């Protein structure tokens, strides 16, 4: 099919696996519509964009969502996988609210597996959105920004978290938490935590092409080492707390201000 659309509280349910492929168009769920793979996996593919608004998709096992040449947008919507959940977009991945003023953000849940996000440009969570995995959380904004704001959450309940941005990583009024290691990398720009919390059960590392800044924020490597690196710029803590169970290292190309 060119495009696939569910609207008006429509439901498509498969007893086992569910597959949908909008080969050259959009895959759209709106108006409280639902996709369900009751005992199996779900594979959703679009030649253009994937957009959920006030809708949901649920798979008993794994779920993959792919928008080859465009974006994936969840607006007050939910994707829930019994095991692994992966989103792969040619441009942006966005989790946010919908136009209804009473809605909040969107959720991604990998109940017994890993959560993987890969975007050609940007990844953004806002409006109390969340990405939660029982295992590992991986997010890669290949050429753009990684943004987590407005009481949003990324959580690796029993595993590690790797966050990579081709440009900057910005965490505001939000939380990053990993049971084991937590790594944040901003290749060509800065890492900024503003009224945010980053917690690792083991090691925590933040590596920026320019600056690393914590403003009214907390970073904690509970059982391991912490490494804050501003490769060509500053490492700055302003009314913030950084603590580690092991070594704490700050490396700056210019100024280091704790």
Count up the helices. Answer: 0
Structural class: mainly beta
The end-to-end span amounts to 57 Å
The percentage of residues in β strands lies in: over 45%
Largest sheet, described in full?
12 strands, parallel
Mean pLDDT: 97
Number of strands: 34
Computed over alpha carbons, the radius of gyration is: 19 Å
The helix fraction, in percent, is: under 10%
Unreliable segments of 5+ consecutive residues: none
Shape annotation: elongated
Biggest sheet, strands in spatial order? 1-4-7-10-13-16-19-22-25-28-31-34
Report on the architecture of this protein.
It is built from no helices and 34 strands. The radius of gyration is 19 Å and the shape is elongated. The model has no long low-confidence stretch (mean pLDDT 97). 0% of the residues lie in helices and 55% in strands. With 258 residues, it is mainly beta.
Give the helices and strands, then pairings.
Elements: E1 4-6, E2 11-14, E3 18-22, E4 27-29, E5 34-37, E6 42-46, E7 50-53, E8 56-59, E9 63-67, E10 72-75, E11 78-81, E12 85-89, E13 93-96, E14 107-110, E15 115-119, E16 123-125, E17 130-133, E18 137-141, E19 146-149, E20 153-156, E21 161-165, E22 169-172, E23 175-178, E24 182-186, E25 191-194, E26 197-200, E27 204-208, E28 212-215, E29 218-221, E30 226-230, E31 235-238, E32 241-244, E33 248-252, E34 256-257
Parallel strand pairs: 1-4, 2-5, 3-6, 4-7, 5-8, 6-9, 7-10, 8-11, 9-12, 10-13, 11-14, 12-15, 13-16, 14-17, 15-18, 16-19, 17-20, 18-21, 19-22, 20-23, 21-24, 22-25, 23-26, 24-27, 25-28, 26-29, 27-30, 28-31, 29-32, 30-33, 31-34
């Amino acid at each position: 099919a060119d495009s696939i659309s569910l609207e008006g509280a429509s439901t498509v349910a498969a007893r086992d696996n569910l597959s949908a492929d909008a080969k050259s168009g959009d895959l759209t769920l709106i108006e409280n519509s639902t996709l369900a793979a009751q005992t199996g996996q779900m594979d959703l593919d679009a030649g253009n964009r994937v957009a959920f608004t006030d809708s949901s998709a649920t798979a008993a096992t794994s779920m993959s969502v792919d928008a080859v040449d465009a974006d994936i947008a969840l607006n007050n919507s939910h994707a829930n996988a019994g095991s692994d959940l992966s989103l792969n977009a040619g441009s942006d991945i966005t989790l946010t609210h919908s136009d209804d003023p009473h809605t909040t953000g969107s959720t991604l849940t990998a109940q017994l597996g890993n959560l993987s996000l890969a975007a050609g440009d940007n990844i953004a969570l806002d409006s109390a959105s969340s990405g939660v995995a029982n295992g590992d959380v991986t997010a890669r904004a290949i050429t753009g920004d990684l943004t987590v704001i407005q009481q949003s959450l990324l959580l690796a309940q029993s595993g590690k978290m790797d966050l990579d941005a081709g440009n900057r990583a910005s965490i505001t009024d939000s939380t990053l938490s990993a049971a084991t290691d937590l790594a944040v990398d901003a290749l060509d720009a800065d890492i900024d935590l503003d009224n945010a919390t980053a917690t690792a059960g083991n090691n925590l590392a933040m590596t920026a092409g320019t600056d690393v800044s914590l403003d009214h924020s907390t970073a904690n490597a509970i059982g391991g080492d912490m490494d804050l690196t501003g490769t060509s710029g500053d490492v700055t803590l302003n009314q913030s707390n950084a603590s580690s169970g092991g070594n704490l290292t700050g490396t700056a190309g210019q100024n280091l201000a704790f």
